[in-house]
Amino acid sequence: MTRFAGDERDRYEAARGAGEPWQARSGRVRPATHTVHIEPVPERSPEEILANAELVLAFAPIHKRAFGVAVGTAAALLVMGLTLFHLLFDPPEPNLELLANYFYGYSVSWRGLFIGTAWAFMVGFVGGWFVAFCRNMVIAVSVFVTRTRAELAQTRDFLDHI
Amino acid sequence: MTRSDVALQRTAQRLNARAWGIALGMFFGLGLLIATNLLVLKGGPNVGHHLRLLRAYFPGYSVSFVGSLIGFVYAFVLGYGLGRVIGTVYDKMVDNT
């Protein structure tokens, strides 16, 4: 049986969870062999909990599909607004028809309005999705590097114990 | 994943639409302001031949210092609107998934 000093038994239970940790599975009680000194379980202060929540907030990944749809919607609204402006007021310049070089089928017309809007949404979606992907990857790599450095720093004095 | 974890994840994923609006507005506004003033400082016989086409959409804008300030306001408003759209649509999408 494991012998505990002072209130270490409570801490041991707390660390291991519910149950009877000092009892063998067969039900037989083992004889005392040694005394275990257990590090107390550190309690998290409210500041630590808050800092953890802020870290989660800072490193939360962007939802790629949602960001793509959002950027696509903004781009579609922009092209729709520009085309509508040209249709209603017909300014002499700039020549918005040049967009047809990139948006196949686009023209300053009511039909072109829908084609241009669809193209802009698609281009915006791809661009937004890719930006979110790159951002998430950079964050993930930087978190990985930081964590690895911290783990290496923790085991730096490993050879000193041999 | 517990319900509170899902709630925390959703909260963490949300964007601040107003902040996005201001950020994109400043980006557009300062971009046009700097681009215009760079051309003004550069000088030449035909200053800002292409950039002056923006006056079709931004009445009052011209490739000059005063015009750059007017253009800043227009571009900021445009960028704010686009940023607001991005933030709002993104939040709606995240809430629905």
Describe this structure in words.
The complex is a heterodimer of chains A (162) and B (97). In chain A, 57% of the residues lie in helices and 0% in strands. Chain A has 4 helices and no strands. Chain A is rod-shaped and about 90 Å long. The model of chain A is unreliable at 18-25 (pLDDT under 50). With 97 residues, chain B is an all-alpha fold. Chain B has helices at 3-13, 17-42, 65-96. In chain B, 33% of the residues are buried. The interface between A and B is medium-sized, with 23 and 18 residues.
- How far from one another are the termini of chain B? 15 Å
Number of separate strands of chain A: 0
The largest β sheet of chain B comes out as: none
Largest β-sheet summary of chain A: none
Average pLDDT of chain A, to the nearest integer?
A: 79
Please state the CA-atom Rg of chain B, rounded to the nearest Å.
19 Å
- Care to count the β-strands of chain B? 0
Shape summary of chain B: rod-shaped
- Described by the principal axes of the CA atoms, the overall outline of chain A is rod-shaped
The secondary structure category of chain B is mainly alpha
DSSP helix fraction of chain B:
over 70%
Mean residue pLDDT of chain B: 88
Q: Provide the low-confidence segments of chain B as ranges.
A: none
- Distance between the first and last residues' Cα of chain A: 30 Å
Order of helices and strands of chain A: HHHH
